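Quick sanity check, Ribosome-recycling factor:
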Amino acid sequence: MTIDEIKKNTDHKMQQSIEAFKNALTRVRTGRANPQLLDTVHVDYYGSMVPLSQVANLTLIDARTIGVAPWEKGMGAKIEKAIRESDLGLNPSSQGDLIRVPMPPMSEERRKELTKVVRGEGENAKIAVRNLRRDANESVKKLVKDKLASEDDQKRAEADIQKATDKRIVEIDHLVASKEQDILAV
C-alpha cells in the first residue's frame, strides 16, 4: 500500500465516521416530529421483526405529529403496540387506517439531558476520527521502516492526515452545535 492509498483510505473512513455520526444525530429527538425517529422501531410481521418503514408509510402530518399508514389492515394494532413499547416515550393513537404519533413537548431538563447525549455522541465520533489518524500514521511509519518511503514523505503524509483530521473534527463540532441549537429551540 502506498502513502496516497493510505491517505485516500483514511479520508474515506473518516467520512464514513461523519456519516454514522449524522445518522446517530437523527435519532436524537428534538421538539419537532421527524419520521426518521421511528427507524429504530421494529414490528412483528408474520413471526419476524421488521423495521416499521417496511410495513407502513411514514409521513409528517404537521410539525409535531407523525402519521403512520399501515399497508395491511390488520397491522394497525401491532404497529401501535410497537411504537408504545419502544423507548421513545411516544403515545400513538389510531384514527381509522391512520395512526397519529404526536410528539410530546420536552421539558427544559430533558432538553439539557439530550444536549449531553449529543455532546457524548460527538466525542465518540471525534475519538473514531482520531483512531483512524493514528492507524494511518502507523501505516506510514511501517512503510518508512520497510524502506518503501522516505522520512520526508512520512512528514508530509502525517501533515496531510492531520489536516484531514482537523477538518473532520471541526465538522463534528459544527454538527453538535447545530443539533444543540435544534434541541434547545422551544
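Posting the structure with no commentary besides this: The helical segments are 3-26, 76-85, 108-145, 151-184.
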